[in-house]
Amino acid sequence: MPAEAKPSAKTAQPKTAQPKSAQAAVRTVQPDSPPLTERQEARRRRILHASAQLASRGGFDAVQMREVAESSQVALGTLYRYFPSKIHLLVATMQDQLAHMHGTLRKKPPAGDTAAERVAETLMRAFRALQREPHLADAMVRALTFADRSVSPEVDQVSRQTTVIILDAMGLDDPTPDQLSAVRVIGHTWHSALITWLSGRASIAQVKIDIETVCRLIDLTEPGGKST
Amino acid sequence: MPAEAKPSAKTAQPKTAQPKSAQAAVRTVQPDSPPLTERQEARRRRILHASAQLASRGGFDAVQMREVAESSQVALGTLYRYFPSKIHLLVATMQDQLAHMHGTLRKKPPAGDTAAERVAETLMRAFRALQREPHLADAMVRALTFADRSVSPEVDQVSRQTTVIILDAMGLDDPTPDQLSAVRVIGHTWHSALITWLSGRASIAQVKIDIETVCRLIDLTEPGGKST
DNA sequence: CGGTAATCTAGAACAAGTTTCAGACTTGAT
DNA sequence: ATCAAGTCTGAAACTTGTTCTAGATTACCG
């Protein structure tokens, strides 16, 4: 009955399926969502690629839906079927990049002695990676913070991915509520500091200091921390 | 020669002045910029009022430039002369509201024993105020995070204002670099936590926890703190 | 193979932010 | 009072995100 499966509003969109890359690492996504045809999978990848490419040049504004459609050889309507809005598209692009980064980070675990050091090192490493593609970073981060409720699931997924990366760096498997809260705060800081840097309101040095500062919170929640 | 003074690109708009950044940490606004005529001042206020009003209803999307112009009895072109973009307008609206809030907060200083407690209390109070106008909060915060470099001066001004509020709550006049960094991190967290709440990804309780968590950082930087 | 339902395409159409323009209006100086 | 320069107005035009439509394609079932 259906033809190429059906990436309809609940299917092909970035929301669902991603038997993709990082999943193995942490169960990146939801198990549901009808599988995509190979051609559909290919289309999806072409779209994400075009998105990242355009973003790498001019940033958020350079990612124009018509251009993405053209670049990825897909009709505008189809693009919208896969990604219901520009924001959805860019958030999906971020999920993609994050998964990639997580994989990279895993290969070379940070070497610090304390959890705080390792987390700070990891975040700075991620930050350095973003510096290499500032426009892309701009597009993704702007999309992330501008996203409204209709994109919550996807944005939440990105948050979770970030949390996993931080917990990984801490070397924790089973964090206490206190630690989870600290991790959330670190995520907030990382995110917000990134924005101030992207908009030219903070220097790289300042971002570094802020990250190091917030990472001290970890010591406070560590069982054997200084406050014990 | 000029007529009603000239709110031209460099005047009435919030853009100008930037002898700023950390300059006086309190010097809320720019001393320069040609003074506005009374009628211009009135127009500006009408515009900001209309903006806040529309935002209080539907949030970011409900603030449509044509409507703002109509509501404030100003031609569209004039609106754009005063505020070069919707983002500029909303950020200016935020400056307005922030100034108002700072005034309110000053009247009833927080009563906590420690600086951390006072800051947390102050932020939660501000948070409660925002809860009363969630749509307005949404519009302002989304504008703030979406702002690109062309709005940096204004956004920076908002950051500074926030910093002042926090320092006020701490009861500090002359913060150390360490403390300033902690304050920045608290600002990041406040901002980002607000976003997660607005987009429905975090509960009020969670925001509270995060704020309390990050405020503990203050203890770490306090001269007589536990780490000394 | 033929049928059918869903997908994809091309392109028009719509919405809201932003720009542009000609002409009427103000302001401050002479 | 007059004038020059800058401001405001009203309306059209332009841009880019998003929606809609009719028809061509594709996938899968029997």
Automatic annotation (TrEMBL), chains A, B:
Q: Where is the HTH tetR-type domain?
A: 41-101
- Which residue intervals are the DNA-binding region? 64-83
Q: Where are the stretches annotated Disordered?
A: 1-40
* Any Pfam family hit: TetR_C_20
Chain intervals with Polar residues compositional bias: 10-21
Q: Keywords on this record?
A: DNA-binding
Q: Which domain of life, per UniProt?
A: Bacteria
Q: Which Gene3D superfamilies match?
A: Tetracycline Repressor, domain 2
Q: Return the PANTHER family for the record.
A: HTH-TYPE TRANSCRIPTIONAL REGULATOR RUTR, HTH-TYPE TRANSCRIPTIONAL REPRESSOR KSTR
Record-given protein name: TetR family transcriptional regulator
Q: Which organism is it from?
A: Streptomyces vastus
In the record, what lineage is assigned to the organism producing the protein?
Answer: Bacteria, Bacillati, Actinomycetota, Actinomycetes, Kitasatosporales
